[in-house]
Each structure stands twice: as C-alpha cells, then as structure tokens.
Amino acid sequence: MTVTGGRFTATGDVVLSVRNLHVTFPSEAGLVKAVRGLSFDLRAGETMAIVGESGSGKSVTSLAIMGLHPRAARISGSITLHGRELVGLSDAQMSSIRGEDLAMIFQDPLSALTPVYTIGDQIVEAIQTHHDVSRAAAWKRAVELLDLVGIPNPQLRVKSFPHEFSGGMRQRAMIAQAIANDPDVIIADEPTTALDVTIQAQVLDVLKTAQVETGAAVILITHDLGVVAGMSDRVTVMYAGRPVEQGSVDDIFYRPRMPYTIGLLGAVPRLDATGSEPLATLQGNPPSVVDLPPGCPFSPRCPLAHAGCRTTEPDLAGVGPDHVAACWESDRITREHLTSADIFPVESAGDVPPPDTTPRTERETVLSLENLSRHYPLMKGAVLRRRVGTVYAVDGIDLDLRRGETLGLVGESGCGKSTTLLEILNLHAPTDGRIVVFGKDTSTLGRREKKTMRRDLQVVFQDPMASLDPRMPIFDIIAEPLGVHGWSKGRTETRVMDLLRTVGLEPGHANRYPQHFSGGQRQRIGIARALALEPELIVLDEPVSALDVSIQAGVINLLEDLKKRLRLSYLFVAHDLAVIRHIADRVAVMYLGKIVEVGDIDEVYSRPSHPYTQALLSAIPIPDPTTERSRTRILLHGDLPSPANPPSGCTFRTRCPIFEGLDPEQRTPCLAAMPPLEVAPDGAPVTLAQALDPAEARPGGEDRPVGRDTPTDHLVACYYARPVKVL
C-alpha cells in the first residue's frame, strides 16, 4: 500500500485509464489525426513505455493526458484518473490536477524551467500551489528533493538559476519538481534524449528512485529501446497515430507479432553484438496522418503486405495473454518464426569487393595526429580585455587512421571530440603538435595545396538540415563542390545523378529542395555531397544522432556499404557507443582533451581497462530485458570538469570510482601526473565488483606485457588499469 497524490493506492490498482482516445488538429491541408483510438490501463507502481518513430503520436498522447493541447485540438474518448474523467475539464480544473496528481518531465529542461526564477523558487511554487504550507516548510522540502535526486550541495544549489546547472542537473531539478507533491502519474517525455550516456544513466537512476519514493505510475516516452528494456513493465508501440502492438516488455522484445515492431528492434545497433551484420531497414517514411489511405498504414513499408493489407486496416487482436497486435500476418510471424532478417533483408546497393586482408601495419596512414593540442585564451572584460586563463580543449593526443579503416572517437560533450575534428578540417597549424593528412603536414600547406587536399578530405555534419542551404535544390547542393574544382557541366550532371542513385535517392528528385525530404534523406544528400569529389577520407560528426532509429539504421548501412565499395576511411565521432561498435574497426576514448584508451574495437569493448571506458560501456542500455535486469552500472558522480580548470594529475580522478576507494598513499601517483598511454594489462577480465574493490587496486604496470609498443596495441592511460567484463 502506498500513498500517492493524497490517496491510498494499492500497488497494481489502475490509476489512469485511457479509452479510445482520438486527438485531431485542424490544418490548411485538412484534419491532422494525430492519435487514433489509443486505449490502455496504467497501474500504480508500473512503468509503461510508448515507442515509435517521430510523428507517431507519442507526445500528443502525453499532452492530451496533461490537458496541455491548444483549444483548437479536438479530443474525444475517455481519460480517467482514479475514475475521474479528465476529457472536457476546463484549464482551471486541470490546473488543480497538474502537479498534484499528474506530473510531467519534459524533453528540454532549459525550455521548461523559467530562467528568471531560481530552482528553489520554482519547486516552492509547485508545492504551495497545491498545499497550504509556509514558504519556509516548502523551501525545506525543495532542499530535500534536490538532495533526493542527487544534486550536490542542495542547500546552496537550491538558490541557483537554471542556466547555472548543467543539462543533467537541470533534468534532475525537473524530476524534483515533478515529484514535489507525490503525484499518482509521472509522464517522462524523452527525458534523456539530449544527455550524454553517463548523465543518462544518472537521470534514469534518479527516475527509478523517484518512482520508488512516490509509488507513482510512469509513462515513459522514448525512442531508445535499450532504455525501454531496462525501465518498463509494459510497452505500447505506435504508428501513424494508433497503437499497433501492446504487451509486456518481454512479449514485445522476445515475441513481437507486428512487422513494424520487429523492424524497430532489428534496426537498433547493439552494444553486445559481435558481428557487423547490416541492420534491419524500414524502407520509406511514415505516412501523413492528414489523409490516410485505406488499409494498414504500414503496408507501403511492409514486405509481408498483401492485397488485403491495402484495403482494410487491422484491429488490435489478442496474440497472447495480455498481448495484442494489429497485423493480418501475426499468425504467420509466429508459425514461421520470422525475424527482422527474414522480413527486412538487407541487400548491398552494388558489388562489394572482398575484404582487404592486408595487415593494418602495412596499410597506408591517411591521418596522423602527433601530440595534437588546441588551447584557447580565456579572456575577461568588455573594453579592456585581458587574458585570465587557458581553455585546454585538446591537450596532446596521438592517433593514426589507416586506409580502409573506421576509427571511432567517443566521449562526453566537452571532451574535445569536435575540436579535434575542426583542427583536422581547418588544415592549419595547431597550438602544438602535428596533423599529417595523406603524408603531408597541414601546417606547411599553401592555399593551392589546401584546396587540393580538401578534395580528398570531406565531412558529414550532425544536423543535415542546418548543413544544407534551404534556398538551393539538391542538384545544386551536390554539384557545388564539383563546380569549385572545375568539373564541366555535362560531367557534373552525370556525376550528381550517379551519386543520388549511390545513396539510395531518386535522380528525378534532383530539383527538390532540402525541406521536401525527411531527416534520413537529407543526411543521404549530405553524404552524396561529401562523396562528390571521390574523397579518400570522410570525417563524420555525429551523423545519425538526430535520426529515428529506423532511419538511422539505413544511414549506417549505407556508410558501411560505401566504405567497402569505395575503399573509404572514416573518422567517426559519436556519443552512442553501440553505433561505434557496429561500424568502427578501432575506437579512441577521449576525456577532457586527452585520449585515455584506444585499441581494436573488439578488444576495447570486451576488455575495457580504463574506469572511464568501463563507465561509458556500462551506461549504454542494451535492448534486451533479461540482460538489462542483471547488469551492473558504474554511475559517475558529477559533471565533466571545465577544460579551463582541469584537475591536477589524472584529469579523471575527480569522478573515478577507483580513486574514491584508494588510501592516501595509493592516490599519490594519480595526484602527481597524468598517466601516459601504455599497453593495457593482460589477463582475464575481472568483474565490476572486483575492479571497484580498493583491496584489489594495484598499479597496473606490474602485469603489463613488454615488447608490445606498436600503435596497433590496446593502450590505456591509467595507473590502476585492469580489464573488466562489462557486457
């Protein structure tokens, strides 16, 4: 028995019931049927995830429950909270429920928190709006809540403004505000989308704690199926505004009966995958919900679709205990044990040559970074500016990339990944060290040589819409670099059409503008532009982070296919280590401007030896409920230190779980100097518990092999490095 929202609720009792919910918006094109016939029951203490691609109706559902839609929205059906009907209530009536019985955690905390009020003032307001308590009592409660969600020094930080918090701390503060009145239902709308994986792990842990403290039911809206596997009890899969499959988390992950669900699961890169098989790709895009054609909305993208699928939309039907799916072929899926590989086979866009078996040490080096540093002056003053410090954005890194290889560069935001890319792309002298591209030191290049080198060195940016000129048709966008390098008109036209086919786009769409394409298609346009001059090295800066999982899979498959067919080399920057596992040959882990671990992808993932790498890998959710329930995570405390004031000695020591347990004598080397990159220790990987046991801590140099000092070795910068089994 728990107390929620002022009511006594037995765990398992239905607190929120949604029946045949429809949400429609007027538009110039017609009625937008954003939600069509959604029904579910949410029980106390239960977590239900709502998943699906962008535009499927997930967030519209949450706003309908909260009563936050504009007046023009037409909402029908039933939403009851403890038997009280919410549909039709006035905004004043809903205001008495929001924050008290219903609470919401928004995707962007900086937009959701008022910038001109302190965090404490906003939590106090949430409490005093619903309860007759003094400001002193409410303020004390605000401090307790910030302490509960893990904000350090809550007595001081309660007086801070939102802009003074990091992204992870702002999300924690929003959770504190949401649980201030012990709500019955908490709706978390993409609560970790914009966060680093280490901060995501902290926030999810806080959310679990908040649910335990309040006994609330949680609706989790997310595109991350790994988070769903670890957090949820039940799952609702939505497509084109309606639920297409609902069931327990085990049913959805292990016994899916709807091709769309199977495709989503097959499209997710997995951290625990050992091969590089192509990901399942859902061809096409979700339909417009303005004027849906008859039949199943998924049929144009479904390889199992037949004539009946295109005429009649299937209803949700029972396919197991408490498991329903909307598919005419659900029985066939079960009978034939169809998997994502069976339903969504992936074929190469062209002839793939046999893999290059040349040893890495014998391949040409296309990029070499030697003690690369980029420091920026930290200035103060508006009129009389003076230097008051230095920002150590990149602080002495060594990397090399061989022909036909993909090197993944990973780390938290602010670690120096993007600065490293910019130093390479700018082709000028760094603060210190050397950048050697195709055997040439970039600091010695003249203007003509730089132009020639940029032909062979191209980039694909993170945001395809921001990197494409909206005023130019895609033909001109792709043709622009060809014109700069003097290609003739006829040759350019042939090349552009070939490139569009290469990246899976229709040549007939060459006169369309970027806004006429989906996110995945825009990213393919960016890739086509990067390929225009037949480069040898492509730098990719988070190229799939802004895409839906189904679209992301297609872009990843395309990049892998192009690499094999065109013998390309990639420098691939990402925060998603599962994507890096799928596409990279080697990986370098960066922390506060330095490389702390580097090596072969399988070696680093199976035997991570630096505690930071171990924390990153343990924080990545795996889309497997059984695996997620049994995993142990390393939760790093605090945020990344400022590169303008890095810690002395080992820069990771302020967050290092091993350092925390060391005695003063053992801490001496960590305090004295940054450990150098050395060959990782041999031996069987230990468990996380053994790795974090202070009694087991010992300098790692004693059992490190000798004679393995080539750049191909697994290198790590830690005095207490030990290989750990994380996956």
Textual characterization of the structure:
32% of the residues lie in helices and 22% in strands. The protein has 727 residues and is of the alpha/beta class. The chain folds into 4 domains: 2-232, Rossmann fold; 259-343, no CATH class; 360-376 and 396-584, Rossmann fold, CATH 3.40.50; 594-716, no CATH class. The longest helix has 18 residues, at 197-214. The two termini are 37 Å apart.
Question: Keywords, please?
Answer:
727 residues; alpha/beta; Rossmann fold; 4 domains; 8-stranded mixed sheet; 26 strands; disordered N terminus
SSE arrangement:
Layout: E1 2-4, E2 7-9, E3 14-27, E4 30-43, E5 47-51, H1 58-66, E6 74-81, E7 84-85, H2 91-95, E8 102-105, H3 109-112, H4 119-130, H5 135-148, H6 154-157, H7 167-178, E9 185-189, H8 197-214, E10 217-221, H9 225-231, E11 234-239, E12 242-248, H10 249-254, H11 259-266, E13 317-320, E14 323-325, H12 330-335, H13 340-343, E15 365-380, E16 386-402, E17 406-410, H14 417-426, E18 432-437, E19 440-441, H15 447-456, E20 457-460, H16 464-467, H17 474-484, H18 489-502, H19 519-531, E21 537-541, H20 549-566, E22 569-573, H21 577-583, E23 586-591, E24 594-600, H22 601-606, H23 611-619, H24 625-630, H25 657-660, H26 664-672, E25 678-679, H27 688-691, E26 715-716
Parallel strand pairs: 5-10, 5-11, 8-9, 9-10, 17-22, 17-23, 20-21, 21-22
Antiparallel strand pairs: 1-2, 3-4, 3-6, 6-7, 11-12, 12-14, 13-14, 15-16, 15-18, 18-19, 23-24, 24-26, 25-26
